Amino acid sequence: MKDEQCADEEIHKCTHVLLDFPVLKGEQMANANLLVNHYIADVVGYGDAENPAEVNLEEAANSLVKDFQEFHKEFPDSPQVWHVRLKSKITYEQEELLCLMIVSETFMGGAHGTLNKRYLTFNLQNGEPVHLIDRIADKAAFMIIAERNFRKQKKLSPIADLEKAGYWFADNKFALPANIGIDDQGYLLHYNAYEIAPYSMGPTDIKIGFEELETAN
Questions:
Q1: Would you list the domain boundaries of the chain?
Q2: List of the chain residues with pLDDT < 70
Q3: CATH H-level superfamily of 132-216
Q4: What's the predicted TM-score (pTM) here?
């Protein structure tokens, strides 16, 4: 979806919404598709995650473009254009689990845009969402490995003060991200910008391999 005054070959120069996401097959995945659509509508800025009804992503995209057109009428000299670009990828589909990674880039004014990554995991048998941390038997070992890998990536010693290093963990204690996914090699931990550090420090990805977790046990 784009501003109707914009030529296709110049879409990146004007307000637009580009959404690339899968439709999961099977009647049992209807609820999963609904949750995915609600999340995407929230990214666009016209969703209601608490509403169980179907969401129309085309209408959501149209609403953003129309809102920009109203903004442009009020501020015709403003050089800014808005955009939402979203891509997705299935990172894991085995046995009873499917994990979908959704990466979105949005700009609707301000100093800079927002880059966000989200993992959504579902049970392939019934389409219900799955919280991967609930499937991990030894959560204490998982936490130890996660902090060790985090500190190694950030070049921090095992005893380095996280707050002094610029991180915002509650009570200055390492914590897992809200966002955990999975692929064929292991668990994917992602902290979005602003989650544990200023925007200037960017997002953080760390990984815990299946073998790494098995060795710890």
A1: 8-123, 132-216
A2: 1-12, 48-52, 216-217
A3: Heat-shock cognate protein, ATPase (3.90.640.20)
A4: 0.89
